Amino acid sequence: MRNTHFSSPSRSIPALAILPALLCLALPESFAATRDTRAEKPNIILILADDLGYADLGCQGSEDIRTPAIDRLAETGLRFTAAYITAPQCGPSRAGLMTGLNQARFGYYENHEQSGLPPRAIAPTMAEYLKGAGYTTGIVGKWHIGLEPEEPDKEPWPAAPWNRGFDYSLIHHGGSLFYFPFGRNYEQMLNVGRDPRMREVKEGSDEVNYRMFEKDAYLTDLFTDLAVSFIERNAEKPFFLYLSYTAPHTPLQAKAEDVAANDHIPEGPRRVFAGMMTALDRGVGRVREVLEDNGLAEDTLIVFLSDNGAPTSQNASLNDPFRGVKGRVLEGGIRVPFLVSWPARVPAGEVRAGPVGALDLLPTFTGVAGGKLSDHLAYPGRDLTAYWASEKCKPEPRPFVWKWRSMAAIRVGPWKLIDVQPGQWSLKGGSLNDNGLYNLVGDPRELRPRQREATKRADELRDILNIWERRHEQSLETETAVGARKRGSPQ
Ligand code: CA
Questions:
Q1: Ligand 1 centre and the CA of 94: distance in Å?
Q2: What's the pLDDT score for residue 156?
């Protein structure tokens, strides 16, 4: 895999550190020799939680949030302790996740629901790659990276998932929805900007249906039902399912029995949040169950993560031990739970210290599917399969960068530099106080900033960040055209 994003100073990345990664290149082949036919194209399920904090899974150490089914992913697979998404907010994070490119490459900084992604010719989605590799692709849940164009008659919803590689879509397009969306007055729902209707496009169809469901349907369970149906319909062939729950994003609404099941927690928002997590966990359990019922559990790769850190004061989730919340580039806003289960290929019960990122998933999924990444783009992510197989195959040190609103941050090794410029959002969040150079090993809560202007280390990180920012100012269209010319490909 190429990595031309960072012509960083060599002093930042010791050359010797690259050697273990080179030795690891042979590992996937040795695994391939033992694989059966089905495992050559494993099913892939990406489960995304929404605003789930780092602390709130049993396997992450929570003592009050009970998630036995999600914990089982860690017991049968890997748990990462330093996994990052690309923005501390839903839309931009998902835009990065789906394209494998930092969303700053295409100026996606906000939750505009009509922003959309660059065209497929410029930046294919994960689903487009997997569909191209022979997978049946489906999304159930929250999309939130564009839907209708501003002038609907001119283009047929170019940003909708059914036009971005998904054979099956059952989505709502916004950032959140009531959890009992169909039991209230429809006009009231529209007045608060939350259209409860689900847009559905079935496999083999171009027709968009607006679906309503039972009045007492609970959103998390509904998404699980539809995900299970997708798996059952497609059990005989390789599939990719993007199961994008809204839980545990606000509003805090849970089923009465799920709240009651958490009466070990004092009455209040935290108990309702726990009830929402009970439904999310039940969903993951049901997905596992339908895989087992269909003999697919061994050869299905499941990745579970959250799209950003928790807004702790809003949804009562916790980012412990980290400081910072959704909307900030402290670890609490950007470091998320990240679990990988793939019994046929991934060891059970191991922990990886990473760091890894959401941008690694597109190249990893495309690799395990037997697909091929575009030659025209320099993807920053890595195929993680060798690292999944062995702790010894950790990817070479590389920068992780966040650029969101007026905030920027970069991590290289244990060092992290936060640079928040004065601006509307930074002042609102008080995050100017976050500025500084931190050593995450000795100071994971980012409480003791070094004097960043006075240290050589800070200057090195600043240099890499500046290169990154200049690189990301270049348009993707230019990169694609230049890449095509260099390789003699048609433009
Ligand atoms: Ca979110």
A1: 9
A2: 66
